[in-house]
Specification:
Layout (H helix, E strand, L loop, with lengths): L5 H30 L8 H22 L3 H5 L2 E5 L7 H11 L4 H7 L6 H17 L10 H6 L1 E5 L3
Antiparallel strand pairs: 1-2
């Protein structure tokens, strides 16, 4: 079974990113309040680690239920390769592998201390490459899904 259209998956991905602003705001406020952080640059790395965990909880929770809010909006569901609901363990593997959307260009750019705009351009180029690479998969799935043993399917409305 082929994946939903790439344009729909990327629209869902973009919408998910917009929704994550709310998650970041609430989690950042909670972290700042509990850690008594007064300056945004204080406790930067612990905040990033905290957000990584919060994102993990968010995605693993919703993926193991089948859909995030963005996926419901775009009628997309995540299942395992047999079409069954995703277990929390498999959802956690999908979450870890989903970082392939971001980590490779950030790791390559990090030693060069590039200006932020150049890093954004490199990151967007990688995201476009990674998205279009799904065309090489036999079922047009994203490669992190193939590696995690999951796939995106059309959800019934």
């Amino acid at each position: 079974m082929a994946a939903p259209a790439l344009s729909r998956r990327m629209a869902c991905w973009l919408y998910e990113g917009i929704l994550m602003f709310g998650v970041v705001f609430i989690a950042g406020y909670l972290f700042g309040t509990l850690s008594q952080t007064r300056n945004a640059l204080d406790n930067r790395h612990p905040l990033q680690a905290f957000l990584f965990v919060v994102f993990g909880i968010y995605f693993v929770w919703f993926w193991s239920k089948g859909q995030t809010l963005a996926m419901k909006t775009w009628h997309i569901r995540v299942v395992d390769t047999a079409g069954r609901p995703v277990t929390q363990r498999r959802a956690l593997a999908r979450y870890a592998l989903a970082w392939l959307w971001f980590l490779p260009p950030l790791l390559v750019a990090a030693p060069f201390q590039l200006p932020a705009l150049e890093v954004v351009v490199i990151l967007l180029g990688w995201i476009a490459f990674w998205a279009f690479a799904s065309r090489l998969h036999p079922q047009q799935q994203f490669w992190h899904d193939a590696l995690a043993g999951t796939r995106l399917v059309n959800a019934l409305a």
